[in-house]
């Protein structure tokens, strides 16, 4: 399976134009976050999706040899504003209901973070568990997966926290979007192999998709995100473990600008092919 890309890395465009650009760039699948990537329909409130629109979007991507492997949402699932929280839940549920018509097997998300640095509370954990249970129930009705991703500074910020969360919110319709880059920070980059191995040991059997970015220390000594192949993340190890646990899983490239995409795509695919060959020995 080749490497896909976040659709909104091409900008927010009319979906016909977006589909053409993705196909022209040589990608065969995307993670599509409608309200970040599509400009000719306002998806910032729930209610705009309908069967005709969903099928039209999917068909336009198919015309250019592109499938929608993941629906992304980037929504906050424990925000204090109750009205906004319910709106976020309904937006995610709408993606679940139309995922099959869009050809996507999953809807993925990080659960959110406090942008102001406020410490997380028992209320935050209680609410996010209730929300994810509700979303998993909806996903079960429609035969799709909810993909959860751990990310530094988010409520669910480590592989261990996500593993515990999955135990506390049991559902066969919840899977993991693995992204080692999201688990690396300034303090642990030197121990990245340990961090990556731990993530697969804890989450490997639940992986349903993978993200690919790169990380390195900046000139000031702080960690920064760069396109795959432009940093210091151990991609050989990442692809080795990904092939070991989930051969053929969709990989979605992040963090690249259009002029960097081809190089980053070749870099990921090169490491993946090497890992596949090593598995066959």
Describe the structure in your own words:
The protein has 281 residues and is an alpha/beta fold. The chain is built from 9 helices and 10 strands. It has helices at 15-24, 34-37, 51-63, 82-102, 122-142, 159-168, 192-203, 235-245, 258-280; strands at 3-6, 29-32, 67-72, 106-109, 145-148, 174-178, 207-212, 214-217, 223-226, 251-253. The strands form 2 sheets. The protein has an 8-stranded parallel beta barrel with strand order 1-2-3-4-5-6-7-10, surrounded by 5 helices. Strands 8-9 form a two-stranded antiparallel sheet. Helix 3 (51-63) packs across helix 4 and helix 7 runs parallel beside helix 8. It is globular. The two termini are 20 Å apart. The model has no long low-confidence stretch (mean pLDDT 97).
């Amino acid at each position: 399976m080749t490497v896909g890309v976040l659709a909104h890395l091409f900008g927010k465009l009319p979906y016909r134009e977006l589909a053409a650009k993705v196909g022209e760039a040589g990608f065969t699948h995307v993670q599509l976050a409608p309200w970040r990537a599509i400009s000719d329909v306002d998806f910032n409130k729930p209610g705009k999706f309908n069967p005709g629109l969903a099928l039209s979007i999917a068909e336009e991507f198919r015309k250019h040899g592109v499938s929608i492997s993941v629906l992304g949402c980037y929504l906050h699932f424990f925000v204090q504003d109750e009205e906004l929280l319910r709106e976020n839940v309904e937006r995610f549920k709408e993606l679940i209901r139309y995922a099959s018509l869009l050809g996507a097997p999953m809807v993925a998300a990080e659960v959110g973070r406090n942008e102001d640095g406020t410490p997380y509370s028992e209320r935050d954990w209680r609410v996010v568990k209730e929300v994810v249970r509700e979303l998993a129930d909806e996903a079960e009705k429609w035969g799709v997966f909810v993909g959860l991703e751990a990310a530094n500074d988010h409520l669910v910020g480590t592989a261990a926290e996500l593993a515990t969360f999955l135990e506390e919110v049991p559902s066969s319709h919840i899977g993991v979007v693995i992204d080692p880059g999201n688990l690396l920070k300034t303090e642990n980059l030197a121990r990245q192999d340990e961090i990556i191995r731990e993530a697969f040991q804890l989450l490997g059997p639940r992986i349903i998709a993978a993200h690919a970015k790169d990380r390195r220390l900046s000139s000031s000594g702080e960690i920064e995100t760069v396109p795959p192949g432009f940093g210091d993340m151990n991609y050989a190890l990442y692809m080795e473990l990904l092939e070991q646990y989930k051969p053929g899983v969709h990989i979605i490239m992040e963090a690249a600008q259009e002029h960097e995409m081809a190089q980053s795509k070749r870099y990921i695919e090169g490491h993946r092919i090497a890992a596949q060959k090593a598995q066959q020995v």
